[in-house]
Amino acid sequence: METKTVDVGKAFRYGWETLKKDFWYFIGISVLYVVITSVPNAGDNDSGLGILGIFIGAWLTGGLYRILLDYHVGKKQEFTVLFTQLKHFWRILLGTLLLLLIIAGGLILLIVPGIIWALKYQFTIMLIVDKDMQIMDALRASGEMTKGIKWPLFVFGLAALGALALGLIALGVGVFVAVPVIWLAYVYVYRNLPSPSATPAVAAKS
């Protein structure tokens, strides 16, 4: 049986070293992603723009995860991949909305369950992109992957928030450095966990 470990320090070192090796590539992706997904939020109380932001986020997340996952195995994608990965769009969108409902429900139940469920299901969207899973299969697989390691994953989340805060303190522009480091560290954690057991939907395709 494979041992599950989350080495937070090693994950962020990987993120930082990888960023330094291909600095402008990841900075460019970071700027594109952050700026484009932030545009709808400029409308403040405009609910229409808020909904548009959710759609844009789902659209770009598929491309972002594809770029990061492929880079981790030595395949460097073009920037355009960020905009062309529509294959998983509806599953990412509906999966994200379902996760928001699950986490919101948990937060209503005295906050702690919401945090636990956020940690448990955090790899759902990544699995949809990486393994071409259906939403419910991805939820179950994420639960399997994170079983027994929620505390180190929580520490990783705190470290990510700390890195983002430092980026914001650095006149705001530091966020474009912090964000790709966090992304790369997150993919490192994901890739270094044992792969989930094959689900019926995935097994049928293999």
Secondary-structure map with pairings?
Elements: H1 8-21, H2 23-38, H3 47-72, H4 81-84, H5 89-108, H6 112-120, H7 124-131, H8 135-146, H9 150-169, H10 175-191, H11 200-205
Explained architecture:
The two termini are 23 Å apart. By secondary structure, the chain is mainly alpha-helical. It has helices at 8-21, 23-38, 47-72, 81-84, 89-108, 112-120, 124-131, 135-146, 150-169, 175-191, 200-205. 74% of the residues lie in helices and 0% in strands. Helix 1 (8-21) crosses helix 10 (175-191) and helix 5 (89-108) packs antiparallel against helix 6. The model is unreliable at 198-206 (pLDDT under 50). The protein has eleven helices and no strands.
Q: What key phrases describe this protein's structure?
A:
single chain, 206 residues, mainly alpha, 74% helix, globular
Largest sheet, in brief, is: none
Strand composition percent? under 5%
Helical content (DSSP H or I, runs of 4+): over 70%
Q: How would you describe the shape?
A: globular
Query: SS-based structural class?
Result: mainly alpha
Q: Radius of gyration over alpha carbons?
A: 17 Å
Q: What is the residue-mean pLDDT, rounded to a whole number?
A: 87
End-to-end gap: 23 Å
H/I helix tally: 11
The count of DSSP E runs of length 2 or more, i.e. the number of strands, is: 0
Runs in which pLDDT lies below 50 for 5 or more consecutive residues are: 198-206
Instruction: Output the helix-strand order.
Output: HHHHHHHHHHH
